Amino acid sequence: MKVLAANIEDVFREAAARWTLIAYFCLSSIFILMFAAAVNLDVVNGALAGAKLFGKEMEVGGSFPIEKIVTGFESGFTGIIYGLCTFLAIFATAHLVPRMQDKGTIDLYLSRPASRLKLLSSRYVAGLLLATSNVAYLILTIWLIVIWKTHVVHMRFLLGGALIVFTIAALLAFTFLIGVITSSTGVSIMTTYALFIFSLPLMAHAKMEAAVSSEWSAWLIRGLYWVLPKTAEIGMAVVAFVSGGAIPEEVQKALAPAPFLSTALFGIGCFALAALAFKRKEF
Length: 283
Fold this sequence. Notes:
Blueprint: H1 2-17, H2 20-38, E1 39-44, E2 47-53, E3 56-58, E4 64-65, H3 66-93, H4 96-100, H5 105-110, H6 116-150, H7 155-182, H8 185-202, H9 205-211, H10 215-227, H11 231-243, H12 249-252, H13 257-280
Helix pairs in contact: 1-6, 2-6, 3-6, 3-7, 3-11, 6-7, 6-13, 7-8, 7-11, 7-13, 9-10
């Protein structure tokens, strides 16, 4: 516990010194202010009588139950928050391992009476807590704004943040693996972003398999789909979870357990390889 507490303190102190916490707060606050200013709802007797989006009047043909409107707004904004939080988390935590492996810094860390596995694990937990703090700030603040404006308490939006943290945890494990191998923050950022984006075309792996001419190409595409994290599908699952079934069935299918299980295994495998490489690395 002492190693974990020390690393959490180091990571948050370093984040403050490098302006990461301030950047986190400012960027998230800008998004929150945009959300608060963009959405204005006129609620009468628990139904939507009028609405403005970015200052423009929206046609409301009749009165809609405010609960459905809130669910629609929150599910839509959840998709944006998913991408924003993941982007910020990667950028803010990719330096944790390369910075630790700098000459002089790593000597100080290894001089402590703790194993390398504990050192890397506590660093990982500290980085995940840093990313989770931003997710919590963003989700909780928007949730409170929605309650203030509509008096509707929608717990699914709040709980959707856990799915975002799940994706960040898997990608952070991959970032740690690349960081241990390359000791480069830039490479860690680029490869993790590429991994996140690469999930989009792989969603259509079945069509891609049918389009290729050789069997080995189809097996390669299928293998990449199942090995790599399903960030795009989990993003759809976040929206589907928050919507509570108020979106097309194709999106609801993203809540199947397979994408979550394969992504979890990917994250566990990446961290295991990172721990093995860090244990054997000479400094």
